[in-house]
């Protein structure tokens, strides 16, 4: 029997469809770490609605922009922000070269281990110390310092590498959105070049899709090599109202889905979900003192107070971590 | 004759390869508007080298970042920057609402048509006027104003819509790079939200891959609707040393290919091509007074002086527009 090209093409198409169906069946639950229930159903319903060509809520692929906070949304932020742990270790490592730190705040409190006294204003204070300990480094040198620290440091409570302190259900959610042609972005109050060291490997988010707080950079050519030098001055704080501003500058398009866990994400969720049209906003509510941590309205890191009220009044989805997540961290 | 699944798979693979070869043959010249010669050969040789898996110059897909200047590199910038023509028209349109402009520079010179007097410092002056004429608008309102202007305005010398004043060979180059898994970015001194109105449709570059100069934005909720309001203050000037800085912040990864046409692009080309490793830098040299314009070392807009020297000393590719381009503009 001889197959014509057309016949072969038909056979191939049939084989491809059969293969695709088998794959679809094997992977039929894209969110296996999410327990069945309202939260999971709401996510799936939204993604299916915007992906349904010809449907009333269809959104063209280029507009499928989803933004994620990082600390407390994609990875743990207790007992303190990971970048704060990093900054403290850097202060200790550089203390000998900076003898004046023994008598200068916030360094002296950091060196004495009094973290609450060192950082009374949360993320802004942390960024100030990060700036001071890294200005003068090139972007590449800084990335190497972060990479080394992430490889060697362990979480104080869980003993795991920080890059394993990520939420398995959120990794699945990122992948699920991308498999439905969403472009996933990180929009974090944390340092942009701190995150870019690991976001591609850990989250599948390339550096150009990461927004964060940043120091000013200076271009120079040193010994014939072009470098970007970190300056001791903040350029942008990507928190609160800074999040929609950063999205406006960096993406230039409103997201249709936004994911956060604190009041610092509120404006990003408002920007995404207040306009008419299909959109999805979700808060991760930390309710799981046993497997992770339980905190919200009175937390030092990751305070979720106005955000909870906004979620209730706008009907945004709230993850009850203890109830909605079958597992929290990867194996 | 019965085909096993494996057999069918082999046949299908063979058919796919044969089909791909046929397509490749049909499209064998990805740059039909480029005349054969050294310039075209250099482009193709670079793209093939970095795409050759296992080859000595292979570059993994995520690192295939290419950055393009806009004015004078992707579209015409004579007799003045397009955004300057836009700014002049905006000043005229808003003059009645701003009676003081009759006696205030640079507005009075603009209204009198004395452009040289109005903008002695080039792009920075232009941006100042653009700021003044658009602060208080939301991003969406501003985009609508630009869209309307682009639809109704015509180039003073060529009579074409500005979005047709783009270079056909560069459109092919953008597409050729993308077909080899490059991610293409625009890095322009022009206003970021001015460009984003047309870059996706005209260049195939989505808004999140466009960098430019920008005004500060302010997030607000007006009548229940979230908006980004343009502020009367520059946030970032994406020109000269600002280009590698913008790339560092926005992309977070060194390009391996960069394309420009003026001294304002020099630092971007240095950042891209001075480090060791496979890279490609190209200057478009405007040598075609007949079909376009001829200008370089003494130009008011798009001065190319130090850049020409740097290209000669580093061996960067220089497009001789008159010689290298079979056509300049699309039909």
UniProtKB/TrEMBL annotation, chains A, B:
SUPFAM superfamilies named among the record's database cross-references: HAD-like
Q: Spell out the molecular function terms from Gene Ontology.
A: hydrolase activity
Q: What are the entry keywords?
A: Hydrolase, Signal
- A UniProt-annotated Pfam family: HAD
**Organism for this UniProt entry:** Pikeienuella piscinae
| Name this protein carries in UniProt | Haloacid dehalogenase-like hydrolase
Signal peptide span: 1-26
InterPro entries membership: HAD-like_sf, HAD_sf
